[in-house]
Amino acid sequence: MPRISSLYLCMYVCSLVTESLTMAPVRPGHNVTINCSLSTENIYWYVQQPGMAPLAVLRSFADVSHEAIYFNDFKGKFVLQTHGRLLIQNVTRQDCMVFYCAVTSNESLVFSNGIKLNIDDMCPERQLSTFSLFIASVVSNCILIITVIVLAKKLSPHRYKPVRKLEPVRDEALYSVVQIPGQGNETNTTKLITSTYAVLQHP
């Protein structure tokens, strides 16, 4: 049961992202706004460049008086708008990236499908999402680690209590000779009757 619980916990924390992408057409030098399909508040935005790990862009809050927090020097390039929408300014070829929004659920992040900018067909054709591969790799590693731990416990040598050595049984026989006078003859001949006794000792 602990093994199953650990596996579910690992897979639950490492939320999987589907591979489907939404294409957002845009022309170079223009601005584009993308929406989050999960929520309009308390949102995280992530961006993933081809062949790179995903990077956090910003985090928004339900309280409108609380300004969004930007990460990785993305402030200025990306701007949070109302209802959790993300504004991408002055689009260039370098913006051929996939964007994800995420929300917290039970202390875990749940990610949306990716939104890929299609800048006048200058971006490379869609490939398998690196973000999906990244998350799948994390889950696979978790499963592998749990499997190794379980196998290591199963293959560990069992400890047995030492068996007490039994002392060999020693059979000792005691012998005695009893002399009984004979009867029936007037002669004083004495008949010797020899009896043998054996005493067994239990261990």
List keywords for this structure.
disordered N terminus, 22% strand, 203 residues, Immunoglobulin-like, three-stranded antiparallel sheet, 2 helices, alpha+beta
Helix-strand layout with pairing:
Elements: H1 2-13, E1 21-26, E2 32-34, E3 44-48, E4 55-59, E5 69-70, E6 78-80, E7 86-88, E8 98-105, E9 108-111, E10 114-119, H2 130-155
The biggest sheet amounts to:
7 strands, mixed
Listing every helix as H and every strand as E from the N terminus to the C terminus, the arrangement reads HEEEEEEEEEEH
In percent terms, what proportion of residues is strand?
A: 15-25%
Mean pLDDT: 74
Secondary structure category: alpha+beta
Overall CATH architecture = Sandwich
Domain module tally: 1
Q: Assign an overall shape.
A: elongated
CATH superfamily: Immunoglobulins
The total of beta strands comes to 10
Residue windows where pLDDT falls under 50 for at least 5 positions? 1-18
End-to-end C-alpha gap:
47 Å
Based on CA atoms alone, the radius of gyration comes out at: 43 Å
Helical amount among residues, as a percent range? 10-25%
- CATH fold descriptor: Immunoglobulin-like
CATH class: Mainly Beta
Number of helices: 2
Descriptive account of the structure:
The chain is an alpha+beta fold and 203 residues long. It has one domain: Immunoglobulin-like (Sandwich), CATH 2.60.40.10. The protein has 2 helices and 10 strands; from the N terminus they run H-E-E-E-E-E-E-E-E-E-E-H. Strands 1, 3, 4, 5, 8, 9 and 10 form a 7-stranded mixed beta sheet that branches. The protein has a 3-stranded antiparallel beta sheet with strand order 2-7-6, with no helix packed on it. The protein starts with a helix and ends in a 48-residue tail after the last helix. It comes from Scleropages formosus (Asian bonytongue). It holds the Pfam family V-set.
